[in-house]
Write a structure and sequence with these properties.
single chain; alpha/beta; Rossmann fold; four-stranded antiparallel β-sheet; 8 helices; elongated
Length: 221
Amino acid sequence: MKKILLVEDDSNLGYVIQDNLLLNGYKVSLCTDGSLGWNEFQKNTFDLCLLDVMLPKKDGFNLAKQIKTVSDVPIIFLTAKAMLKDKSTGFHLGADDYITKPFDLEELLLRIKAVLKRTHQVTSKGFHLGNTFFDSTNYQLIGNNTKKLTKKEGDLLKLLCLNKNNISKREIILKEIWGDDNYFNGRSLDVFITKLRKHLKEEESITIDNVHGIGFCLKTS
């Protein structure tokens, strides 16, 4: 199930969008200002962000800029600002789409599906990790030597790559990869992180950092 972060300060519109997305099979976290949106983004992993531009505390452009410093998650702006310069700003910040209000909910759903399909086609092929290419479909690390990963190693590395330069929380990793966050799975996670570090030891620009008490972060420099 795809997870969407929705940041919209108009609570009535926010609930309408949230309910519509829930009915169409998405999980949705709704926040009413930019600061709350950033806090929620840091705590969870999302497949897409829907951001209003004119938000209290932290506007949508600044929130998007902050998100893009730590993640490649796709972003769609929802805004009443229809000026070309505003759209230009949004796309310059890395937005994948820009929808002006008022909009039709069916159009919003179509735009979301299109962006998710497009970004999935890119990310599903693999990830460049320094001089190594991670083929996430076939669970292979392709570089000077090709290494075949186990399914759990591959799924774990893919999750870290999708959230690169951002913290992946332990409990989220365990539920996504192992389906449970009990003690023994937690110990297994540590073992698999060690294995991935060994597989990537030749890539000096790639690290998997342990964020004590929180989770892990795959960093690229």
